């Protein structure tokens, strides 16, 4: 029997359902590359300007960690590739993960796949169609990025090498999502695991690039895009790494899909208690049950994240001691303490964004419950709307604060022990994590406001988060105007440790959060549900 | 005689689509009221307005003497609701959901809970994601029937139940009626409504087209009969209330006004009945016959 029957039809269906989102993702990534190249061309038109730019950054571990290895910062292409290879791959990876899970496990979980599976559709077709879509999207991305950069006057080889690097990231993580979709029965978990691996591989290359542990960069698919060395004597063979990895992951996904039933996971569902425990009481008890597993897995992840980042912070200054030239950079950055503080502050700014992801995800769970019609039984059982929505918001706001405190404590603990000054360093790092809380809360407030007022557009909260992320990553280097940078709450977070602490912006962010949340709660009381 | 639900001139639109267009509905305390209509007629929308989930565009709605939108929380303590499409939390067991919903409403009759679980043959230890549609419906039914609520709002509660369980459901609702509870039963299964309901409202395109006791609506119903007889029948066509007669040798198919059923059956037995099936017409058939002309006109 042909297990691929119907793949063509299903692929068209996936494309039809994804036409807006997929186009938006591709446009954002392509614009990121082209816009960066254009900005650099305007800011550093001369060879001398670029040489100065390169000299000011070369070997700076903070930029190595946040952005990537610097192969050739004296050409426009080299600067562009350095600046966007990591972020572009990260976005391509998320695009692939979300798309694949949405059309595999998510469709299976809500029964749509059953409807299709009963038609003339082979066993492997429902998995193949989204994979083909993502692989195709990767190729289109490579062509668009390569073509657009070439049209901007950059060398064609480097342009397409960078584009293919992005494509490789999309392929690898699309295939990875196809595997995680087989493991778990819930789409949420499948996305969570795959997205967690994406973030992990980004951090692996950040650590590998900044601490000299090259092997970490070489086992990270995000790192591969950078190791292709677009515009800097391209290493084409590196592109074989994503191809091989993708093939292996796809093969694994097919093996797994053949071994399980429709709707099932690899882990069997066990029976649970026949009676509700005393804690499952009221809408708050229910909210706790619904947020519990997610919050716990986030906590474990950020503890690991904090310990690793904290433990490696000291190594950053070690790397700089290896040569005279780097010694001068070290001095310019305020000595070894200064550079470690800069590194910690830079990492904490990423941790703040991770916190914002949790803030948005947990706030939108309320809308998810409503869409799945699971709000109805609770709201018709004598629970007021504000109380119900508020129960979810408690976990969104409280959970975000808890995550930041825990990650700060873990990072401060590891760094303090390594630096031999636990009592001194722990509070400084913890403070750096805690000041991220209000900024992450603003995103939770935005998600709450959308839930209350524009429930069909809650996805905007994610889009805004991506914009804030890009502003933070690119804004200063591309010298975007200050008012634009000021839109992002993360621009206003004090750069701790090392920077100056000011309470005023934090108070403003809390005030904005309160207003947005109030709008959300009031809107939710007044609108139709469903 | 007090009124549990009183709706008049209710209007509700979703964008351009008009779901309710001046709907009237009155449910008396202590009665089982059938709420009938084809798919998309506006039954669920009406119920969702009554539950305070949707806000009406116009008209009035009163539930247990209160405003369903403004006093939702207080009113919900006194009612239990079973949606037509029950979705459960994937990671909670059926037993946990029953207890949770009971606690939210302020109490559950434990003896009744155990009895209902047994009668519906429901395993309360299974997780929400592993239940079939029928079993999910049973979870919601047990939670509602075991509550102390004075009003039960049931929206097509048997659409996923097998015939055995449907029978159990009918027994349970009959018990609730005897215990003095008010039930609003939305359905498009006429037999179920006939078996349970004191009064019936029929809606179509967001408007009430018929309302009254079953006896009053009896003129709407025809029973279709297929019989295998001992001999070729004669004289059936002359009987009052017989329609669509089709005689093929000893095999007879006909439709008869339910009021005239007795005479027709007497006639049939004269020829020796070898096999007999009788079927009340589906509601959709009734609608087709009764209202097509009206719509055209």
Automatic annotation (TrEMBL), chain A:
Keywords, in A-Z order: Membrane, Transmembrane, Transmembrane helix
Transmembrane portions of the chain: 22-44, 80-101, 131-151, 157-177, 189-208, 236-257, 295-313, 342-360, 393-417, 429-453, 460-481, 501-524
Source species, domain of life: Bacteria
The protein's name: ABC-2 type transport system permease protein
UniProtKB/TrEMBL annotation, chain B:
PROSITE patterns per record: ABC_TRANSPORTER_1, ABC_TRANSPORTER_2
Topological relation to the membrane, as annotated: Peripheral membrane protein
Compartment(s) of residence: Cell membrane
Domain of life, source organism: Bacteria
UniProt keywords, alphabetically: Antibiotic resistance, ATP-binding, Nucleotide-binding, Transport
UniProt xrefs under SUPFAM superfamilies: P-loop containing nucleoside triphosphate hydrolases
Molecular functions (GO terms): ATP binding; ATP hydrolysis activity
Stated name of the protein: ABC transporter related protein
């Amino acid at each position: 029997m042909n297990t691929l029957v119907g793949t063509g039809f299903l692929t068209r269906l996936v494309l039809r359902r994804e036409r807006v989102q997929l186009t938006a993702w591709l446009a954002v990534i392509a614009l990121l590359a082209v816009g960066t190249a254009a900005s650099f061309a305007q800011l550093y038109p001369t060879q001398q300007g670029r040489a100065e730019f390169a000299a000011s950054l070369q070997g700076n571990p903070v930029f190595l960690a946040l952005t990537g290895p610097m192969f050739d910062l004296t050409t426009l292409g080299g600067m562009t590739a350095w600046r966007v290879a990591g972020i572009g791959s990260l976005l391509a990876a998320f695009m692939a993960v979300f798309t694949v899970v949405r059309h595999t496990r998510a469709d299976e979980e809500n029964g749509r796949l059953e409807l299709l599976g009963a038609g003339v559709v082979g066993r492997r077709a429902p998995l193949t169609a989204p994979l083909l879509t993502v692989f195709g999207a990767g190729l289109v991305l490579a062509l668009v990025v390569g073509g657009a950069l070439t049209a901007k006057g950059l060398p064609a080889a480097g342009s397409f090498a960078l584009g293919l690097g992005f494509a490789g990231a999309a392929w690898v993580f699309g295939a990875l999502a196809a595997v995680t979709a087989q493991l778990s029965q819930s789409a949420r978990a499948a996305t969570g695991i795959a997205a967690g691996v994406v973030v992990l591989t980004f951090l692996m290359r950040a650590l590998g690039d900044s601490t000299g542990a090259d092997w970490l960069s070489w086992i990270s698919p995000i790192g591969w895009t950078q190791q292709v060395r677009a515009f800097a004597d391209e290493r084409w063979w590196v592109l074989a790494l994503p191809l091989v990895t993708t093939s292996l992951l796809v093969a694994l996904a097919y093996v797994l899909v053949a071994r399980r039933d429709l709707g099932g996971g690899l882990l069997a569902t066990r029976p649970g208690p026949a009676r509700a425990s005393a804690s499952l009481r009221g809408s708050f008890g229910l909210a706790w049950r619904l947020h519990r597993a997610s919050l716990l897995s986030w906590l474990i992840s950020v503890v690991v994240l904090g310990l690793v980042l904290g433990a490696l912070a000291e190594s950053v200054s070690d790397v700089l001691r290896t040569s005279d030239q780097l010694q001068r950079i070290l001095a310019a950055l305020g000595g070894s303490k200064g550079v470690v503080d800069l590194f910690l502050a830079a990492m904490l700014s990423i941790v703040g964004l991770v916190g914002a992801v949790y803030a948005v995800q947990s706030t939108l769970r309320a809308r998810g419950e409503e869409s799945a019609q699971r709000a109805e039984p609770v709201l018709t059982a004598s629970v007021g709307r504000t109380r119900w929505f508020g129960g979810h918001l408690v976990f969104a706001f409280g959970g975000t604060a808890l995550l930041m405190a825990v990650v700060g404590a873990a990072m401060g603990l590891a760094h303090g022990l390594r630096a031999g000054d636990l009592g001194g360093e722990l509070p400084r790092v913890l403070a750096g994590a805690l000041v991220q809380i209000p900024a992450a809360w603003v995103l939770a407030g935005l998600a709450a406001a959308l839930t209350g007022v524009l429930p069909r557009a809650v996805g905007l909260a994610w889009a805004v988060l991506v914009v804030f992320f890009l502003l933070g990553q690119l804004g200063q280097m591309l010298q975007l105007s200050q008012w634009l940078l000021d839109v992002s709450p993360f621009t206003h977070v004090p750069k701790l440790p090392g920077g100056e602490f000011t309470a005023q912006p934090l108070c403003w962010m809390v005030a904005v959060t309160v207003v947005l949340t109030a709008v959300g709660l009031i809107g939710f009381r007044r609108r139709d549900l469903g | 005689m007090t009124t549990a639900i009183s709706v008049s001139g209710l209007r509700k639109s979703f964008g351009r689509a008009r779901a309710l267009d001046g709907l009237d509905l009155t449910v008396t305390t202590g009665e089982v009221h059938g709420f009938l209509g084809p798919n998309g007629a506006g039954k669920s929308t009406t119920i969702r307005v009554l539950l305070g989930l949707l806000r009406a565009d116009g008209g009035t709605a009163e539930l247990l003497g209160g405003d369903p939108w403004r006093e939702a929380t207080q009113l919900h303590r006194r009612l239990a609701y079973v949606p037509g499409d029950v979705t459960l939390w994937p990671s909670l067991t059926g037993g946990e959901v029953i207890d949770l919903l009971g606690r939210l409403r302020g109490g559950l009759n434990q003896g009744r809970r155990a009895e209902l679980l047994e009668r519906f043959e429901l395993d309360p230890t299974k997780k929400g994601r592993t239940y079939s549609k029928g079993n999910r419906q049973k979870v919601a039914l047990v939670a509602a029937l075991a509550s102390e609520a004075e009003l039960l709002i049931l929206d097509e509660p048997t659409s996923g139940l097998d015939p055995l369980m449907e029978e159990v459901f009918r027994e349970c609702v009959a018990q609730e009626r005897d215990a003095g509870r008010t039930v609003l039963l939305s359905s498009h299964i006429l037999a179920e409504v006939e078996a349970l309901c004191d009064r019936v409202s029929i809606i179509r395109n967001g408007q009430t087209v018929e309302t009254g006791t079953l006896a009053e609506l009896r003129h709407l119903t025809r029973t279709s009969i297929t019989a295998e007889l001992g001999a070729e029948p004669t004289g059936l066509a002359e009987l009052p209330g017989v329609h669509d007669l089709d005689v093929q040798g000893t095999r007879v198919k006909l439709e008869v006004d339910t009021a005239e059923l007795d005479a027709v059956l007497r006639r049939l037995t004269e020829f020796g009945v070898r096999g007999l099936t009788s079927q009340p017409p589906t509601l959709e058939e009734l609608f087709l016959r009764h209202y097509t002309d009206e719509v055209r006109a």
